[in-house]
Amino acid sequence: MNDGIIVNPFKTKNACVEISVDAESKDSPTKKTDDIDRNTLDLPKRKIVTWALHQGYTKESILGSIYKCNPQIKGPDIEITDNLQKCNEIYDTSRIITNIVYQYLPEQIAVNFRKIDRVIMSKDNNIYTLYSIDWFPENQTSFETDDLSSTEQKKKKQMVIAMFIKEQIDNGEKSSLFSDEMDIQMSLATDHEFKFAFRSAIDYYIVGAWDDSLQLLRRCLNLRPRDGPTLEIFRFINEEGSHGLEGKLMPPKDWKGHRNIMEQVAEIVE
Fold it and tell me: Is 89 buried (19+), middle (13-18) or exposed (0-12) by CB count in 10 A?
């Protein structure tokens, strides 16, 4: 299903990125649950290209000869990143990161990410907080038009842009490279009512107030009927929760603010 590659874009051993291109996602059926509107769940999945980002260490080796070599990147953090990439399939997201990466994000970027779950997703049994960013470029037209200038003019423009970027970095204004990029800004979600409701729903879900969380998740589904993280947490609460003496939905007695998704991850075939 996925043609995945793991790369290290920073030429260091402290970043693990997994990128997948899902050629079948447009035809793949989504999960069905009786507690959620079937007309919503029967829609095809939207996420075609997905990526995951986690911080860790890798072991790099090369097999082959002077004519042809096959680089290999291995390590426990690569396995975690691979499982993190599969979480995009679970939550129907296109980009997902762990709390380890989130803590290093500048405020201007971090504010656009939302917490979607706390999980155990790897053999190390560590608890990871997952974050995803609401960015929908498929819904926007390009801010910039195609550059039809001559090659020399393009080179001059690129030199000016490179000088501007270097100046911004030297002045400690790296975040402006994100906030001033209109192709990015125009695609970011701006539905603040949904963001507030979802953030509150996840907070209630983590502390075990599942009945309150469920009500907010219903509001989220009214605002964004196809939101993957909302549908996943909604499904989980309905399947694992039980009604108490007062009729309120309660979490399992052993609920500790996180869940184990190892079985779900293992069921996803690459």
Answer: buried
Closest CA to 40 of 221, 240, 238: 221
Does residue 66 sit within a domain?
A: no
What is the pairing mode between strands 49-54 and 16-22?
A: antiparallel
Is there a single domain that holds both residue 262 and residue 169?
Answer: no
Indicate whether 145 belongs to any domain.
no
Q: Residue 102 belongs to what domain range?
A: 2-60+71-140+187-267
Q: Which of 56, 47, 59 shows the shortest CA–CA distance to 81?
A: 56
User: In a structure prediction context, what are the per-residue pLDDT tens digits for the chain, which is 270 residues long?
Assistant: 333 333 333 333 455 655 554 544 434 443 434 455 545 555 555 556 788 888 888 787 777 777 888 877 777 788 888 899 999 999 988 889 999 999 988 887 888 899 999 999 988 899 999 999 876 554 555 545 666 677 778 777 778 777 877 776 777 766 665 665 555 555 566 778 999 999 999 999 999 999 999 999 999 999 988 889 999 999 999 999 998 878 889 999 999 999 999 999 998 876
